[in-house]
Amino acid sequence: MAREGKLTHLGKSGEARMVDVSAKAATERVAVAEGRVVMARATLDLVLKGDAKKGDVLGAARIAGIMAGKKTHELIPLCHPLALSKIAVDIEPDAALPGLIVRATAKVTGQTGVEMEALTAVSVACLTIYDMVKAVERGMRIEGIRLLEKSGGKSGRYRAKE
Q1: Strands 27-38 and 99-110
Q2: Are 100 and 35 in contact (CB under 8 A)?
C-alpha cells in the first residue's frame, strides 16, 4: 500500500533534488531487504558444493553486496552518503525454489534511512550469483527484490506483508 504524501525528491517545478535532511533528528535506522535467485536444482547443487569454475559463489556475492551497500550513494543519484554502522548479507539455499534467498541488513545512526543501501546490497549480491554461474545456466531469474522491514526515523516502523 502506498503512503500518502508528496514525492520528496521533486522540487516545486518537478526537478530532481536531493532532500535536505539537516533538520531531522539522528536516530538509529535499520532496513532489511530480500531477493531470490531462482535456478535449476543442478545449478544450486553446484553452488552449494563449491564447484563453480569462478570460485566461492556465496562468499563473492556476500562481499559484493556489502561493497555495493557502502557505495549506494555513488550508484543512486539522489541518495545521501552514509556512515553505515552495519551492512550484512546472508544467503540461504531454498530447495523449494530451487535457488538462493539473499537478505541484507543495513544500519546507521543518522538523519536518513538505509532502505536503499539494503536494496542495493541485495541486488548486487543477486547479480554476482548470476555472474558466477551464468556459464552453467543463463536462464536463472532474479526475483522478488523488496524491502522487508525498516525502523527508525519520523515514519517509524514498516514491515512487508507476507
Answers
A1: antiparallel
A2: no
Q: What are the cell numbers at 145?
A: 527484490
Q: How does 50-89 read in b/e, with b if 16+ C-beta sit within 10 Å?
A: eebeeeebbebbbebbbbbbbbbbeeeeebbebebeebbb
Q: Per the residue annotation, which of 20, 51, 94, 131 is the catalytic one?
A: 131
Q: What is the pTM of this model?
A: 0.89
Distance CA 159, CA 162 (A): 9
**Quick check: is 94 catalytic?**
no
Mean pLDDT for 154-159 is 90
Q: H-type helices in 101-148, by residue range?
A: 115-133
Terminal CA-CA length for the chain: 13
pLDDT above 50: residue 61: yes
pLDDT of residue 115: 97
Length of the chain: 162
Give strand pairing partners of 102: 35, 91
> Grid coordinates standing for 129?
550469483
* Across 36-60, average pLDDT: 95
Name residue, grid cell 548486487. Answer: 124
